Amino acid sequence: MKIQGRMFIWLSVFILAVAIIYGLWSKEPVGTTALFMSFGLSIMIGYYLAFTARRVDTGAQDNKDADVADDAGELGFFSPHSWQPLALAVGGALAFLGVAIGWWLVYISTPIILIGLFGWVFEYYHGENQNQ
H-type helices in 54-83, by residue range? Predict the structure, then answer.
């Protein structure tokens, strides 16, 4: 994680320099604001990765002599059969479509989003997967 943290911090320094030069040269507020916001996002990610790298064990990506196989192993548990992301995607698509078509569509998409969200959060609290 140390490498990724350094990469994002250097990327944020570059974006800051580009934002300053772009803002002074173009005098265009929207692009300048977007670049400064990109700087803020990249510095947050870089700080998080650098902060977390101090508290976890050194990974294979931080060792210059490591092989690809050194980082192999279990990454975590991922639900193989969940339908809840589909409900969230449909609800989110309808909500963003509501901005273009009409705000009434957001009222229709809100229950779909809430059903998908609650279903995803509480997926393993009931039914056949309760003990996983």
Answer: none
71, two tokens:
């980082």
Question: Could you tell me the CA-to-CA distances from 107 to 6, 42, 85, 92 in Å, in that order?
Answer: 43, 34, 19, 12
* Average pLDDT estimate for 87-103: 95
Confidence at 54, pLDDT banded by 50, 70, 90: confident
Alpha helices in 27-66 (DSSP H): 29-53
Question: What angle separates helix 29-53 from helix 2-26, to the nearest 10 degrees?
Answer: 160
pLDDT of residue 129: 67
* Placement of tokens 């509480």 in the chain: 122
